[in-house]
Amino acid sequence: MAKQDPTSPSATPRPLEPALPPAPATVPAQNPAPQKLDGPLLKLAAVLLVGAMAALLDTTIVNVAVDHLSRSLDAPVSTAQWVASAYLLSTASVIPMTGWAIDRFGQRATWMTALALFGAGSLLCTAAWSIESLIAFRVVTGLGSGMVLPLVMTILVQAAGPQRLGRAIGLISVPIQLAPALGPVLGGMVLDTLGWRWIFVVSVPMILLAMALAVRGVPKGDPRATERLDVVGLLLLSPGIATLLYGLSVLGDSPYALVFAAAGLLLIIGFVVHALRERPRGPAPVIDLRLFRELLFGLGALLMFVFGICIWAGMFLLPLFFQQIQGTSAMTAGLLMAPMAAGVALVNLFMGSVTDRVGPRYLVVVGLLVGAAATAPFAFAGPDTSPALLAGAMFVRGLGLGAAMVPMLATAYRRLPSDQVPRASSALNVTQRLGAAIGTAALALLLSSLLAGNAQPETAFQATFWWMTGLTAAAMVPAMFLPSTRPDLD
Question: Is residue 54's pLDDT more than 80?
Answer without folding.
Answer: yes
